[in-house]
Amino acid sequence: GEWSVSYAFNSQLAPVMATEPSLHSLRSRATVTWSFQEEAQTYQVWIDDPAPGVTPSSSIVSVNSKSISVDMAMVGRYRVWVRAIFAGGAVGAWSAPAVLIADGAPGGLNVNSADVTRPELRWQSVPGATRYDVRVTLKETNAVVMTAVKNSTSTPVTSHKLVDALPIGNYQFSVRAIAFDGTAGSWSSSQNYNSTLAPVLKTVQPGLE
Q: What pTM value is reported for the model?
């Protein structure tokens, strides 16, 4: 039969990047660099962000330099591949992925103690979080006495009311965000809390005591 339409390619090695995961702050910009490919005219870069499916920030872009900045807009793991484009449209092999981890802890953690032994925790949402881990520890020993998981897939969830009553004691509350890809962010700053029983009022009729 007839030969197919030809496809130009180049047998040179793929660009080399650091593949050890690197940690970056949420909402920062991380720079990814790679080795120069001789005779390369441009580079194509594929960025896979933590969100499911193809999003505006997960696509192929062309650059003329050997570096690119990645916007750490949501908590989770980013992967970046690069390949060289040569004269005549010849395409090199994709590199191994560079892995970037965007880390962000929930801020503004506070406690509503209207129900003293079952307080409500509130925090600020973290972009890209699909759930939050809640942790209660004893302040004196740091032993974990209670945990909870709050799903936050469709509507952001930024609070949790304890189901079980806390015995009298001193505690610390903390929260962390979990990304869609399962990457766990850092724990928030701890919030101290003292659980005490409410005073019991005794009704006394005048003149009886």
A: 0.79
